[in-house]
Input
Amino acid sequence: MASFDPFPVLTTPRLTLRPIEPSDVERIFRIQSDPEVTRYFGRGPDGSIADSERRIAAILAGVRENTSIRWGITLKENGELVGTAGFWRWNKPHRWAEIGYELLPALWNRGIMTEALRAVLRFGFESMELHRVEAHIDPENRASARVLERLGFVREGQHRQNWYYDGRFTDTAVYGLLRDEAAAT
Ligand SMILES: CC(C)(COP(=O)(O)OP(=O)(O)OC[C@H]1O[C@@H](n2cnc3c(N)ncnc32)[C@H](O)[C@@H]1OP(=O)(O)O)[C@@H](O)C(=O)NCCC(=O)NCCS
Output
């Protein structure tokens, strides 16, 4: 089973996926305080730097305790942290985890998240020995659905009105990718 010490830095043609550090707080806040980013998260954007500090502390605790992992996605061309991605809700006995991700809107639709997630998934299946990766998304989040479909995820079903936020109930689309399917894409 994977140890996250030393932290597994991943590289792709355009990106370096590296550990998130307390000093990244301004960048994380810039991403997490943007309502476009959190639109489908079933929660509001970060309202203060302290919110993002707590977010980073939770990420670091997950990595330290080997219960979850989140990478900072940086552009090789300038080192800028432009997003994050990782696994959470890691169910070790049953060998699955849920994937999560978000990117600065200025960089959307350039294939960056698809590229980042390919490396994240490879790590999950090979090093964390996952058999299955799940994604739970708002069915209206078309960009996220498209990324998952391109990576070979299968839409397995839909929970009806299981999320309540801002005065309304929303559905959750459940996607799954099995290890063998990922190897085939
Ligand atoms: C989801 C997200 C990470 C995608 O990142 P990205 O780097 O732009 O993704 P990619 O460029 O790799 O792929 C996006 C795909 O969605 C498509 N797309 C974008 N907006 C779309 C829309 N409104 N309807 C249909 N397709 C759309 C793009 O055309 C592209 O598909 P293509 O390459 O086949 O043309 C980004 O939109 C984001 O950060 N959103 C906010 C956070 C979020 O929702 N995270 C997921 C939570 S489950």
Observations:
- The first helix runs from residue 25 to 32.
- The chain has a mean pLDDT of 97.
- Residues 37, 40, 101-103, 108-114, 137, 141-144, 146-147, 150 surround coenzyme A (CB under 6 Å).
- The beta strands are 10-11, 15-19, 69-75, 81-91, 96-103, 132-137, 154-165, 168-178.
